Structures are given as C-alpha cells and as structure tokens.
Amino acid sequence: MNDVDSVLYSVDPVIFTFHKSELSVLLVKRQIEPYKALWGLPGGRVDKDKCANLAEALKLKLKQKTGIDQLFFEQLETYGSESMDPRGWSVTTAYLALTHEDELSFASLKNTEAMMWMSLEDVEALPKMAFWHRKIIRDAFSRLRDKSLYTDLPVNFMPEKFTYPALKSAYEKIIGVEITRQGFARRMNSANIFEDTGEREEGKNRPSPLYRKSQRGGAYVFPGLIKGVKNDK
Amino acid sequence: MNDVDSVLYSVDPVIFTFHKSELSVLLVKRQIEPYKALWGLPGGRVDKDKCANLAEALKLKLKQKTGIDQLFFEQLETYGSESMDPRGWSVTTAYLALTHEDELSFASLKNTEAMMWMSLEDVEALPKMAFWHRKIIRDAFSRLRDKSLYTDLPVNFMPEKFTYPALKSAYEKIIGVEITRQGFARRMNSANIFEDTGEREEGKNRPSPLYRKSQRGGAYVFPGLIKGVKNDK
DNA sequence: ATAATAGTGTCTTTCAGACATTATGAT
DNA sequence: ATCATAATGTCTGAAAGACACTATTAT
What mean pLDDT is predicted for residues A203-224? Predict the structure, then answer.
C-alpha cells in the first residue's frame, strides 16, 4: 500500500439513548494520545482482517464497545482533514446509532476504558473533546431531529414493547416541541406499523396498551411533517 | 503512517446533468488497471498536499475533471470493503454533483482521459463498470429523486436564468411523474426563492418569464411532498 | 383569427393541530 | 365517586391535485 494513496481511517458511532430521561451519547475517556484524557466517541480503526465492509466494521465496533450485536444504525457523514488528527491526513465515517438503555449493559464490556452516557447538555458544556467529535455529535443530533419530524426513527429508542406515551415523550424530547396526545395517536395508528400486543402497561390510572413494531425492517416515512406545537391541557 | 491504521481512499463525484434532454452522468474510461478500459466515475485519490479537507479535495477533483470551480455538490455516502478494489481494503466517499451542461466545456479539460455524458439508461445497459460505481450511481439517483420531492435541488441543473417550464421538465424527468403546470407554479411562487428577472424567453407563443434563484446558499425545503401525477390537458 | 402557452381562481382531498366528549381503570 | 389518562369524533387550516376560465404573444 502506498502512503500517497491512503489515509488514516476510522469509524465513529454516535450512540444515542435516553439515560435518566435525558437524550444522551455514549462517550469514552481516551486512554492514549492524541487527545488523551479527553472524552470522545467510541470509535476507532477498522479491523481489516475481521471485517469485509464498512457496515461490518461498524457492527464490530458497536459489539466491542457496548456488548450488543443488534442495534439500529445508519451512516451519517464522512469527515476528512489534515488537521483533525495530529498524526496526519485522516478520514472518519460517523454513524448514527440508537438504542434503548436496557439493551446495553456496561457489565458486558470487556475493555477497561472509562465510559459513560453523557447528556447532550453536558456534552455542550465540555471545554474540549477529542478530534471533531463535538461537531459530529451535533450533526448526528441534527439528523436525528430532522428525520424524527417525518419518520419513525425514534422507535429505535424503545424496548420491544412500548406505550404511545413513552414514544411520544421520546419524540418530544428529540424535536423540542410538544405534540398533542390525540394527534400523536392518530399519526401512529394511520401509519399501520405497530401492532397492539394485547398487554397493558403497569401503573396508575388507565393503562396504555403496549405496542410492538410489526414489520421488521425499513424506516417508515409519514405523509407529512410534525409541525405543531401546543400543549394538551 | 501505519498500514494497519490506514486504507486506500478516494472521492468519487457523481456529476449529473441533462444532456440531450436525458438525465446523464459524467463518466471516464479508465486508462489504467484495475478495471482498465471500463467506464467509471471521475474520482480518484485525495491530493493531501493540496487539500486541507474533504470538501476541498472534491472541489479540486471537480475542477480537474470538468474545468468548473463552482458547482453544486453534497456528500452522498461512503463505501468501504475489502473487495471493492483488488489492491486491498479501500474506502471511497461518493458525492452528488449537479450542473447545467453549458457550464461545463470538455475543451477546458487538460487531461486526455476519454470522457462522456452517459444517460442513466445507457449506464444500466453497460455490462460492467469500474469498482462499485454502478451501485454508487444508482444510490446518487435515488438521493436526487427523493430530495427532489421536497426540495429545490433541481434548480442546480438550471443556468442562471431559467423558465418554470424548463425547471418543471427537470423535476418531471427526475421524479418520473408529471406535474400540473399550475400546481408547479404555485409551489414555486409560494416558496419565494426565485425572482423574476423581467426578461422573457425567446421562441414561440406566449413566452415564459425568466427567473433567477434570489438568495444564494441553502437548499429550500418545501412544506409538502410532490405527490400527484396527472397530465395537464 | 388561431394556436399555444401563461396566469388566476375555485373545488376537493389529505393530513396535522385544536379541542370537546366519552370510556376505562386505579384508588 | 373521583381522578387521571385513553379513545373517539369534529372543526379548522395548510398545501397539493384537478380543472375551468382568462390573458398574452407568435403566427
């Protein structure tokens, strides 16, 4: 391989979840230079011997860092620059990944890196992050917010069975506006992408039905955007 | 630089234009191995000495291949695999670029590679293409079609001054359905992104006004999708 | 005058927001 | 019985499709 034709390359997943009701990102504290001791994304080099393609490389990375083999992800954007990494011209492909916190147990981790869920608010408050990871996280959040206005992307934050109020709350926290309960239910029902499990949630008052995403696979695109913004009294 | 940490890397623009009224892609016939003598995208390695980042690398590539320095582009997707390039694990970042054919003159090209505009139909008819370029072109077209349903992306195919019928025709060829003349004009007018130059096109019958995109910069997102499909009688 | 195409206005449909009313389950 | 929340149905508004009718220019 020729130096002229190659670049330092890595993949960087931005893994979002709701941790303590706050939209949060999985970060690791770097143990080595460059950017040692700073927080960054749980990415890294592609293990070319074990991975036949980029998607496999990302899956391996997710498995290594979180212990889960199945979690939703999609490619976000590729960043490349001579200044991003002090070791030279480098390129990184960022991915947006979503999971329910329960699916991930830190106990299953085999490495010893310091890891944590950090809320987006706390990420913004960090004085410095590794590489371009702050920008990448912002871009990932923008993508998540934009696509949540017209797709069912936020169901990927839910466990297998979930209630409409739980999903609605995820939508609201992502897009930053409130949705009426009735309008939300109508939007979801008319999409025909969920099935009622027949079960009900536990707790007080009238319980919500537990739904499940019926057809595995593709993202659903709603006919219109979520526009509105008013609170249900 | 360590071989373990780096990969073969390139950028590949998919440059669309309307050539002889057909949506077409700029292709070059490869002069060297691998895939010698096959048609492929006009991409290549990043010149790390001349480019500080990926966008610059892409601009340089576009300038070298087409002779234009300003043309619209956006990042499409990054592809990586051990099998894409016989020389080893490689990664390429594809870009979607749009231009009006007039802006590009083959005469301005300094290199000697065989180049041509090939219609998408002819691309599909090719028995074989270099690398994963056929898949990349298909993905680029999908992105173009999808985004044309809710953005003003197709104005990037227009020269500076253009008529609504010309723009409408571009939309129709991209999305594959017809739009009513009146609905199209209403959609464009209500977006408030074009200004009437006061000039009229030349030709027969009642001439159309020539419009110009008023604010340079961002892509416009329409409030709703183009859905419908019926011909104006 | 005629043909071709541009511009205007109205009706319908779809879908989201608002909101009132009814239903259900925990206490 | 009361309260909280879920379900249902109606009204409004925005925006796209359909289409009739008028306006303008070349021939």
Answer: 88
Q: What is the mean pLDDT of chain B?
A: 91
Phi/psi for A163 (5° steps) reads: -100, 160
For residues B186-209, one letter each, b for 16 or more C-beta atoms within 10 angstroms of the residue's C-beta and e for the rest, the string is ebbeeeebbeeeeeeeeeeeeeee
Q: What is the mean pLDDT of residues A41-64?
A: 95
The residue among B131 and B69 whose pLDDT is bigger is: B131
Chain A interface with B: residues with Cβ < 8 Å: 1, 3-9, 45-46, 48, 51-54, 57, 75, 77-83, 87-89, 91, 93, 223-225
pLDDT of residue B105: 65
Scanning every residue of chain A, which has its alpha carbon at the shortest distance from the alpha carbon of B56? A81
The protein footprint on chain C, as nucleotides within 7 A of a CB, is 3-10, 14-20, 23-27
pTM higher than 0.85: yes
Which pair of structure tokens corresponds to residue A5?
A: 């034709």
Chains A–B, number of C-beta pairs less than 8 Å apart? 89
Q: Which CATH architecture has domain B152-213?
A: Orthogonal Bundle (1.10)
Whether residue A7 and residue B3 make contact (CB cut-off 8 A), yes or no, is no
Q: Which nucleotide is nearest to B206 (CA to C1')?
A: D25
Q: Considering only the top CATH level, what class is B3-147? A: alpha beta
Nearest to A1 among B3, B53, B223 (CB): B3
Q: Is the peptide bond before A34 cis (omega within 30 degrees of 0)?
A: yes
* CATH number given to A150-213: 1.10.10.10
Cβ atoms B78, A54 nearer than 8 A: yes
Average pLDDT estimate for A148-153: 96
CA–CA dist A161, A197 (Å, integer): 8
Q: Are B8 and A6 in contact (CB under 8 A)?
A: yes
> CA-CA-CA-CA torsion for B52, B54, B59, B65, nearest 10 degrees?
110
Q: Which two tokens stand for residue A180?
A: 């009426």
Comparing A116-125, B87-96, B140-149, B202-211, the range with the smallest average pLDDT is B202-211
- In chain A, CATH 1.10.10.10 sits at 150-213
Spatial separation of the C-alpha atoms in residues A157 and B127, rounded to whole Å: 43
Q: What are phi and psi of A107, to 5 degrees?
A: -60, -30
Model confidence band, residue B113 (pLDDT cutoffs 50, 70, 90): low
**Where along chain A do the CATH 3.90.79.10 domains lie?**
3-147
Judge: A80–B48 Cβ closer than 8 Å, yes or no. Answer: no
B83-103 confidence digits (pLDDT tens): 999 999 999 999 999 999 877
Ranges for all domains in chain B classified under CATH 1.10.10.10: 152-213
Block residue for tokens 């990302």: A58
